[in-house]
């Protein structure tokens, strides 16, 4: 079922982990967050980590099921992770709490502060500052492309497409951080033209905008920021 949207719920699987699952499906067939499975070998050379620059305070404004949050925390960033969907947040909260209670994962998990909010509100509140803001909004799949992995399909069914991602980008620019990183599929237009640096991986690219780069200067002039 690739085209139609399914009703998604957050429920416990037989191992007591919260999972995102198609309503009515047998428990255990959804997507739980389990950071024990993430391979961290060669992490510093991953395009995501290189794109995010110097280790420091980072806002992951679109946490989802926390895959990127975990890699960034494991690489040494201090991550504030924001998720606005209640369903997705519950599943991620459960995964982060289990990691905090696991001696092998607790050090990495301690670098993550997870909040259920709209990141636009967080960015507009001006109460905090980050060196890097990372954005990975949902993007409509390319027609005819291969079926996305189940966790991605479940998140998409739970939250839809993030059609307001340009507002999020605007709020990120107004927050005056040193660097904004946007993950995009290769076929998608950049959120803002002419990124200063692009890091490519097999499936996606990371568009990097630095505060004093020409692209953001032009954007700020247009947006009167
Ligand atoms: C593509 S997923 C992110 C995947 C994530 N990077 C990962 O590694 O699992 C996009 C997520 O961002 C969330 N999101 C989009 N806009 C948001 C906003 N303004 N504030 C908070 N969360 C947002 C959506 O609810 C969705 O869960």
Report on this structure:
The protein has 225 residues and is an alpha/beta fold. It has one domain (40-223): Rossmann fold, CATH 3.40.50. The chain contains 8 helices and 10 strands. It has helices spanning 47-52, 67-74, 86-100, 106-109, 119-124, 150-159, 165-174, 214-223, and strands at residues 8-12, 18-22, 31-32, 57-60, 78-83, 112-116, 132-135, 179-185, 197-200, 204-210. The strands form 2 sheets. It has a 7-stranded mixed beta sheet with strand order 6-5-4-7-8-10-9, sandwiched between helices. The chain starts with 7 loop residues before the first strand and ends with a helix. The model has no long low-confidence stretch (mean pLDDT 95). The structure holds S-adenosylmethionine.
């Amino acid at each position: 079922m690739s085209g139609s949207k399914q009703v998604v719920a957050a429920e416990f699987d037989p191992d007591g982990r919260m999972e995102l699952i198609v309503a009515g499906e047998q428990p255990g067939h959804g997507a739980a967050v389990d950071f024990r499975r993430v391979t961290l070998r060669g992490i510093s050379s991953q395009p995501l980590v290189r794109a995010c620059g110097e280790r420091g305070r980072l806002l992951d404004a679109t946490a989802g099921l926390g895959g990127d949050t975990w890699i960034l925390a494991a690489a040494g960033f201090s991550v504030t992770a924001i998720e606005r969907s209640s369903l997705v947040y519950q599943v991620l909260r459960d995964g982060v709490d289990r990691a905090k209670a696991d001696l092998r994962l607790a050090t990495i998990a301690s670098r993550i502060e997870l909040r259920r909010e709209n990141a636009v509100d967080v960015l507009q509140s001006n109460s905090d500052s980050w060196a890097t803001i990372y954005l990975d909004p949902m993007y409509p799949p390319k027609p005819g492309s291969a079926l996305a992995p189940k966790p991605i399909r479940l998140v998409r069914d739970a939250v839809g497409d993030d059609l307001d991602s340009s507002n999020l980008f605007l709020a990120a620019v107004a927050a005056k951080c040193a660097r904004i990183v946007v993950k995009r599929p290769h076929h998608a237009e950049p959120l803002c033209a002419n990124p200063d640096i692009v890091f490519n991986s097999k499936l996606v690219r990371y568009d990097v905008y630095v505060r004093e780069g020409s692209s953001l200067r032009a954007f700020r002039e247009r947006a009167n920021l």
